[in-house]
Design goal:
The protein has helices at residues 9-17, 24-34, 40-47, 53-64, 70-103, 113-121, 141-150, 168-173, 205-209, 227-240, 247-259, 265-274, 278-292, 298-306, 308-321, 331-340, 345-364, 368-373, 384-403, and strands at residues 109-111, 132-135, 154-155, 176-180, 187-191, 213-217, 220-224. The longest helix is centred in the first third of the chain and has 34 residues, at 70-103. By secondary structure, it is of the alpha+beta class.
């Protein structure tokens, strides 16, 4: 299986099933793999976080139900039914939210979630999604928040978000508001930016609003971003949010390309270049092409092969995706990835600033251990800011001294 060389059989099976269009050769490979002594517990455990349960159930049931253990098929059927029911509920909730916003004169565009499932997969039940992401223009966010609250949705501000006369500050520092409906438990993420300022992706939403296209969702009319724009947004999302941590995100790219053979590649790359996201676009396309055989033009493949940074990022993502026992990604490693995926220096500055802030806090801001080591009266609490760097210096000195000791 050349397209998945070096990957254990269980992951190969997940990759082969992570598509709605299965070619005869791929179907035969699925059956060949299922005939092996696979670790089905491992497959099911990985299918959930990689958001592949619907496609795994569909393709195993369609092509090799006679070969898959009955207990596995029953589990997949149960999990798929739960996902389908949740997707139907969430899609109805999304349409409700769009209607509420529209009645207040607020134009809103669904982003990812059921709209992407319909556009790329052709069926809202074939994609696993949780939150309902909606994009609006910045000028509408405060009104949209008020309207949703008046209809029973509860705003869930993250630490640092404020309300009242200081609320406009949120628009500069954050990129979304989170809501939950107490009855339906639906989670709504209202975006006025695609990403947070610490990972900037500055795209002109007003210009995009002039290019919105009509679509249908559960027999309702909605508006969507053009496919060329949506492709770029998905590649940015995968790059900013934990290094493409789900195979399902790569599947979204592959399915979107397969469903839209007439895509205007020139426009996608023009927009990516203007917004400093060309490398993120190439990375998403490279992953979809390499792992899921997504249809990518030869010229794009040439650009991918000629970019050494993209090649190294692909290898990094592959390593993390197929790690059998993944661990939490260290802060510095995440920031390094975010720097590498940006081709423009100006887009790296916020990442450098975030690193400097984290370094300052780690070096000077006292924590619980610092306060427990030395008890100071409240009037002298400012001295803890000296205790912290002294403790770090002692630890560093001790570590260096031990390493130089030949007996250790």
């Amino acid at each position: 299986m050349s397209e998945a060389s070096g990957i254990r059989d269980e992951f190969c099976l997940l990759l082969l099933c992570a598509r709605t269009r299965v070619e005869p050769q791929q179907r035969d490979l699925i059956r060949t793999l299922v005939l092996k002594q696979l670790d089905w517990e491992f497959i099911l455990a990985k299918a959930h976080p990689h958001a592949l349960i619907p496609l795994l159930h569909r393709n195993l049931s369609k092509f090799c139900a006679d070969l898959v253990p009955e207990t596995v098929l029953r589990q997949l059927e149960s999990d798929n039914r739960i996902n389908a029911e949740r997707n139907q509920r969430n899609t109805r909730e999304l349409i409700k939210v769009l209607r509420i916003l529209d009645s207040a004169g607020i134009s809103a565009v669904p982003y990812k979630g059921p709209a992407l499932a319909a556009l790329a997969h052709g069926d809202i039940e074939l994609r696993k999604f949780w939150d309902l992401d909606v994009v609006i223009r910045p000028r509408d966010i405060i009104l949209a928040k008020s309207v949703l609250i008046s209809h029973g949705y509860q705003w869930r501000p993250v630490k640092g978000q404020v309300t009242g006369r200081n609320e406009p500050r949120n628009l500069r520092v954050w990129h979304e508001y989170n809501f939950v409906h107490p009855d339906t438990k639906a989670l709504i993420d209202l975006h006025w930016r695609i990403s947070a300022p610490r990972f900037p992706f500055n795209i002109d939403l007003d210009d995009l609003w002039e290019r919105l296209e009509p679509a249908r969702l559960l027999d309702e009319d909605i508006q969507t971003f053009p496919v060329e724009v949506l492709l770029l947004l998905l590649c940015v999302h995968g790059s900013k949010d934990m290094w493409w941590k789900r195979i399902g995100w790569i599947c979204d790219i592959a399915e979107l390309l397969a469903a839209n053979p007439g895509l205007d590649w020139a426009y996608s790359f023009e927009l990516a270049t203007q917004t400093g996201a060309r490398r993120m676009l190439l990375l998403g396309l490279a992953l979809a092409h390499e792992l899921l055989q997504a249809p990518v033009p030869k010229q794009v493949c040439t650009w991918i092969r000629s970019d050494d940074v993209v090649q190294s990022l692909v290898e990094y993502v592959r390593h993390r995706l197929f790690d059998e026992q993944p661990t939490a990604t260290p802060f510095l490693e995440r920031q390094r990835f975010h720097c590498k995926v940006r081709e423009r220096l100006q887009d790296r500055f916020p990442i450098y600033r975030n690193l400097a802030k984290a370094a300052f806090i780690a070096t000077f801001v006292p924590n619980t251990n610092d306060r427990e080591l030395i008890e100071l009266p409240a009037t002298l609490s400012a001295l803890y800011y000296l205790v912290r760097p002294v403790r770090l210096a002692r630890r560093l000195w001790s570590h260096t001294d031990h390493r130089s000791d030949p007996t250790l």
